[in-house]
Specification:
CATH class of the largest domain: Alpha Beta
Helix content: 10-25%
Strand order of the largest sheet: 4-3-2-1-9-8-7-6-5
Radius of gyration: 22 Å
Number of domains: 3
Structural class: alpha+beta
Number of helices: 6
Distance between the termini: 62 Å
Number of strands: 25
Largest sheet: 9 strands, antiparallel
CATH superfamily of the largest domain: Glutaredoxin
Length: 413
């Protein structure tokens, strides 16, 4: 079947979605359980809601409070195909009956050979179902609150994070915040002394496990089908990370300037007279990056509200793909799907060293996204590394309000 699926990917890229396709066969509507087989030992569970209005099916993946509405559901050959709205990835599934679908998640950003087996079954009780959840008389351990976390502990690549969890008996939601972004909406279950959390958004397949120990939590982090590392945590309600406005800075108070191609292949230069006496946000991002997409949605709303008052936004995408045409196509897809009105430019390959070379007036680019906020006088007022999205709750609310307040202040100067 794998060979058939790869052929299907090629077909999907070359056929118009408007072409006539067979109808989706009858499926039960309601909550379904999804399962990604990351490897022989670990499964990532998720929830997907299937509804039918008149003759049309609607598919929505749920990660805690996040809802991902799949687009262009259709049948190609003998498989049901669901596209993720923002990322270049698909679910390709065969219908076994009205309550069971089997196939693959295909992440085309990683090539047509990157696939993970996927199965959907009708009926949903818990994200990580286990008979013990209902039979155990042991009170589940308490993971509520804020945790001081270390990923890849004891190695040269060790990095800090804040774990923020909200638990109601065996159900738990939360996320990890790092100095370059967050791990988005995580949802799962607690079984006695063990924690299980996951997120599946079309770009990343994250699975976190953890167990209470004498020192706090000892855990494992799995990303996709190949990568894994350890993490540890201790309860610490006052722990904080390095402030994201202090990680990236100007070198010798240099001015920000750059030249890139726009989506039509035209040269775009900054600064120009069009940006004089304007408040401008320069966003360095990639369409493959979930944190970048969270930030882009925020910026799209910000631009709609404040552009008429003098706010400009310019986004530079560093993309999967080896040439301008492929990179521009990915950025254009994002522009169309989010209805972005401000300029989007093509930076090149998804490489932080390349971005650092292009923005040599900064000490370095250590994260996608990175944003530079420039006042009407052309001076840099803030450089923000990473982005903590809506999955971080109060952190997201605080940052977005601070940004709105700063924009209003600069517009009134």
């Amino acid at each position: 079947m794998l060979k058939t699926v790869y052929c299907l990917c090629f077909t999907l890229l070359s056929f118009s979605i408007l072409s006539q396709t067979p109808k989706i066969k009858s499926l039960k509507t309601g909550s379904w359980s999804g399962n990604l087989s990351l490897n022989t030992s670990h499964n990532l569970h998720f929830q997907i809601d299937i509804q039918k209005v008149k003759k049309e099916y609607f598919f929505t993946i749920l990660n805690g409070k996040e809802q991902i509405k799949m687009i262009h559901p259709r049948v190609e050959r003998d498989s049901l195909v669901l596209e993720f709205p923002l990322f270049n990835s698909l679910l390709v599934l065969k219908r076994h009956d009205a309550e069971n679908l089997k196939g693959y998640w295909l992440n085309l950003n990683k090539g047509v050979n990157y696939s993970i087996p996927c199965e959907l079954n009708f009926g949903y009780t818990d994200r990580f179902p286990s008979q013990k959840l209902f039979l155990s008389t042991t009170q589940p351990s308490n993971f509520n609150g804020m945790w001081e976390c270390f990923f890849e502990p004891g190695t040269p690549d060790e990095y800090k994070a804040v774990g923020v969890f909200t638990q109601q008996y065996t159900k738990i939601e939360g996320t990890f915040l790092t100095e370059t972004g967050d791990y988005r909406f995580l949802e799962g279950n607690v079984l006695e002394d063990s924690l299980y959390l996951s997120c599946f958004d079309g770009s990343h397949a994250f699975l976190f496990t953890g167990r209470i120990s004498q020192n706090g939590i000892d855990g494992k982090f799995y990303s996709g089908k190949h990568w894994e590392t350890s993490w540890t945590a201790v309860k610490n309600e006052t722990f904080s990370l390095t402030h994201p406005d202090s990680l990236t800075h100007l070198v010798d108070l240099a001015r920000v300037q750059f030249s890139f191609k726009d989506l039509n292949g035209n040269d775009f230069h900054f600064p120009t007279t069009a940006y004089e006496n304007k408040v401008t946000i320069i966003q360095i991002m990639g369409t493959w990056c979930p944190n970048c997409m969270d930030e882009t949605k925020f910026y799209a709303d910000l631009y709609a509200k404040y552009h008429s008052k003098g706010l400009e936004i310019i986004s530079i995408g560093y993309e999967i793909g080896t040439d301008y045409l492929a990179q521009a196509a990915s950025i254009k897809r994002l522009k169309d799907r989010l209805n972005i009105a401000y300029p989007l430019l093509v930076g090149g390959s998804a490489n932080k060293n390349l971005a650092s070379t292009h923005f040599s007036m900064l000490n370095q680019i250590i994260s996608f996204p990175t944003s530079i906020l420039i006042g009407k006088d052309g001076l840099v007022r803030k450089i923000h590394t990473g982005f903590n999205g809506p999955g971080t709750g109060k952190y997201y609310e605080t940052y977005t309000q601070e940004t709105v307040d700063l924009i209003e202040k600069l517009l009134n100067e």
